[in-house]
User: Which sequence fits this backbone?
C-alpha cells in the first residue's frame, strides 16, 4: 500500500512539474512577442513624438504637421460611441441578471450578444455602411460612432451581467425584506456593490474601440482638416496610421509610427487603470 502511494505521489509530482513548465513556456512565448511589439513601437515612434504631434493637423506630403485633428476625431467618436453603448448595455445586462430569470427573451438576448461579441469589426463596419452611410449618401462621424457603439455594446452587456450575478442574493433579500421595491434594490444596492467591475468592463470596452480601424474605414473615413462636425467625414488616429503607413512618403510614415505608439500607450494605460484602480474587492454580504 505504501509503495502504491509513493508511486502515485511521484506521478503527480512529475505531472505537476511538466504542466507548470509548459505553462511558463507559453507565458514566456506570449510575453516575448508583446515585448517585441512594444520595443518596435518605441524604437520607431518615440523619436517622432513632439509638440507638433499634439498641436498641428495632419499635413500634406513633404510638410510639417501632427495628429491633432486625428486625436480629436478619435476621442470625439469614442466618447459618443461610449455614451450610446453604455446605457443600452447596462440596461440589457441588468435585465439578463435581475429580471430575465425565465422565458425565452433572456437566452435569445445572450445568444445574439455572443454573436455580436465575436463578430469581426469589419463586418460591423460594412453593416453600418449599408444601413447609415449608403442611405444618407456620405461618410460621417455619426456613422463611425454608431459602428464603435456596436462593438462596445456586447462587452458592456456581458460585463454588467457577470458583475451583477456576483452580488450575493442575501443583499437583495435583505433590502427587499425592508420593503424596498426591486428597482430600488437594483439601483442602490446591486449597482453599488458591482460598480467596480462594471467600470472595469467599461474601460476595457473603451480600450478595445480606441484602436479600431476597419469599421471607421467604411463609416467615418478620414478628413485632412480639423472638423468637429459629426455629419461629415472625420479623421481618426487609427485610419491615419493605416493610410500614412501605406504611403511612400517618409514624413507620413514617421507620423504613423508616432500615432501607433500613442494609441498603444493610451490602450495600455486604460488597461492598467482598469486592472488596478477599479480592481473589484471582496463583496461584503
Assistant:
Amino acid at each position: 500500500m505504501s509503495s502504491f502511494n509513493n508511486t502515485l505521489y511521484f506521478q503527480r509530482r512529475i505531472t505537476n512539474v511538466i504542466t507548470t513548465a509548459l505553462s511558463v513556456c507559453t507565458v514566456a512565448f506570449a510575453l516575448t512577442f508583446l515585448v517585441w511589439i512594444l520595443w518596435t513601437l518605441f524604437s520607431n515612434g518615440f523619436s517622432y513624438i513632439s509638440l507638433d504631434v499634439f498641436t498641428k493637423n495632419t499635413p500634406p506630403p513633404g510638410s510639417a504637421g501632427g495628429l491633432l485633428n486625428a486625436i480629436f476625431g478619435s476621442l470625439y467618436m469614442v466618447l459618443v460611441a461610449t455614451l450610446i453603448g453604455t446605457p443600452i448595455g447596462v440596461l440589457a445586462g441588468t435585465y439578463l441578471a435581475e429580471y430575465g430569470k425565465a422565458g425565452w427573451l433572456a437566452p435569445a438576448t445572450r445568444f445574439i450578444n455572443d454573436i455580436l461579441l465575436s463578430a469581426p469589426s469589419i463586418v460591423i463596419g460594412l453593416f453600418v455602411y449599408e444601413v447609415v452611410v449608403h442611405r444618407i449618401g456620405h461618410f460621417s462621424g455619426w456613422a463611425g460612432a454608431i459602428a464603435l457603439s456596436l462593438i462596445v455594446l456586447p462587452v458592456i452587456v456581458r460585463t454588467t451581467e457577470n458583475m451583477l450575478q456576483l452580488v450575493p442574493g442575501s443583499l437583495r433579500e435583505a433590502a427587499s425584506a425592508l420593503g424596498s421595491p426591486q428597482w430600488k434594490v437594483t439601483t442602490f444596492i446591486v449597482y453599488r456593490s458591482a460598480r467596480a467591475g462594471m467600470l472595469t468592463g467599461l474601460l476595457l470596452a473603451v480600450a478595445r474601440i480606441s484602436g479600431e480601424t476597419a469599421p471607421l474605414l467604411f463609416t467615418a473615413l478620414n478628413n485632412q482638416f480639423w472638423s468637429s462636425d459629426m455629419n461629415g467625414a472625420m479623421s481618426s488616429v487609427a485610419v491615419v496610421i493605416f493610410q500614412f503607413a501605406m504611403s511612400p512618403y517618409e514624413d507620413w510614415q514617421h507620423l504613423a509610427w508616432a500615432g501607433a505608439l500613442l494609441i498603444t500607450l493610451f490602450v495600455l494605460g486604460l488597461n492598467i487603470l482598469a486592472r488596478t484602480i477599479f480592481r473589484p474587492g471582496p463583496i461584503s454580504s
About this structure: The chain has a mean pLDDT of 90. Residues 31 and 42 are 16 Å apart (CA to CA).
